[in-house]
Specification:
Elements (H helix, E strand, L loop, with lengths): L6 E6 L3 H12 L4 E5 L5 H6 L1 H20 L13 H25 L3 E4 L2 E5 L2 E4 L2 E10 L3 E3 L11 E2 H4 L9 E4 L3 H12 L5 E4 L10 H13 L3 E4 L3 E6 L5 E5 L4 E4 L1 E4 L3 E3 L6 H4 L22 E3 L10 H16 L13 E3 L5 E5 L2 H8 L2 E8 L3 H5 L5 E8 L5 E7 L3 H13 L4 H5 L20
Parallel strand pairs: 1-2, 1-6, 2-3, 6-17, 8-15, 9-10, 9-15, 10-11
Antiparallel strand pairs: 4-5, 5-6, 7-16, 12-13, 13-14, 18-19, 19-22, 20-21, 21-22
This protein binds NADPH dihydro-nicotinamide-adenine-dinucleotide phosphate.
The site of NADPH dihydro-nicotinamide-adenine-dinucleotide phosphate has 23 residues, from helix 6 and strand 18.
Amino acid sequence: MAQKYDFDLFTIGAGSGGVRASRIAAAHGARVAVAEERYLGGTCVNVGCIPKKLLVYASEFGDAFADAAGFGWAPGHPSFDWQKLIANKDREIERLNGVYERLLTGAGARVIRGRAELLDPHTIAIDGARITANHVLVATGGWPTVPQVAGADLGITSNEAFHLERMPRRPLIVGGGYIGVEFAGIFHGLGAQVTLVHRGPVFLRGFDDDLRHTLAEEMRKREFELHFGAVIGKMEPKSADVVRVTLGDGTVLEADLVLWATGRSPNSNGLGLERVGVATDRSGAVIVNEYSQSSVPNIYAIGDVTNRRNLTPVAIAEGHALADTLFGGRPRSVDYDNIPSAVFSQPPIGTVGLTEAEARERYGGVDVYKSAFRPLKHTLSGRDERAFMKLVVDQKSGRVLGAHMLGPDAGEIVQGLAIALKCGATKAQFDATIGIHPTAAEEFVTMREKA
Ligand code: NDP
């Protein structure tokens, strides 16, 4: 019998979420096509998590060389080559682009290069062709936003930061979210003198306040120049290599690079969404239900374009759940409770569950346990850096509601704790767990004094 549509699923966007949904749908036996106009793997693989983490690794060697002296090493005068780092990073990203393509084609999905646009709920125009599909998935991600400020175009966004020809010596970063704080750490670790300007009283809004303040303290110790409660008034060129930045209060700063890290918006323009009646919110995010279904029943959306929790593993979970729902005979939605995340700042943050403020608001009575200490390594390195850990506990049930850490390997440590929180672990169960000695992580099972 002839099929009514060319494909069972047409996915727009081959980022982390779109690829997972398409691959699993194909494995369930669906006929799948995926359109991608830019790069396979999307933001995370090309201009996000992966290259970011590679740059973070690069930026950590400076500290390692300095710390080595206390352990008897005489490391000499290492030099750093930005072009080499970027070339090596680009080679790895290219390899990953190929991996993503093979993940799709290997699963039997068809990859179509070009920009897709919806003509009606079942018809997509791409590259002069018309393709029909029973289900359509919008997985187009997000794009950096730049505020409207005089001279704003003298700055770049994270998209360009990964391809700079030269390492900036005096970068100025605007924004106090993940991207601003992470790039500040990267450039600082590579030897730049970094200024960060953030409009709020302290950066990383939404994170536990103790983490935010402790990170700010640690960064100031490392001579980051942090301007809080400050906005950009205007920007103008001073010379070929220098931008003059005037803050709202008249303070004038100079930088050889301005990086806008002021958030990202859903990538929903020009897809024909309005034409076919897909509802979006004021930010342009596709409005979806718990099954990622939009206001048009056969059109779905996942990942950053829905502006739910804008994290790669969340988009992947949403994509997998959708494929199982539509083609696997197993309707399911994603559980958004206790999603862990890390900020690869210097030092890094790992966090899961509720902040102290959120827990007090939701649960009323909470107990808080805190520990601040000098990591063992720094007793010999001499580095003046402290690690910080915190548990937030519901007084009534004893359940651990939040676990927060600032310090080396925070992301690696908190991933395990996230499982405990997901299982509803209590403080008593944390206490009954034997520590691994000597580690920083053991502190999470040895905190006894309420703060
Ligand atoms: P965020 O939304 O996290 O932060 C944006 C920052 O810019 C905030 O500090 C915000 O201030 C500030 N800001 C927003 N608009 C303006 C403005 N007009 N003028 C001045 N400041 C402004 O966005 P990011 O760009 O840092 O990251 C984008 C997304 O990418 C995040 O949502 C995150 O989920 C994801 N991501 C995750 C990473 C990870 O998991 N490690 C790493 C990198 C990105 P305010 O707080 O006052 O609103």
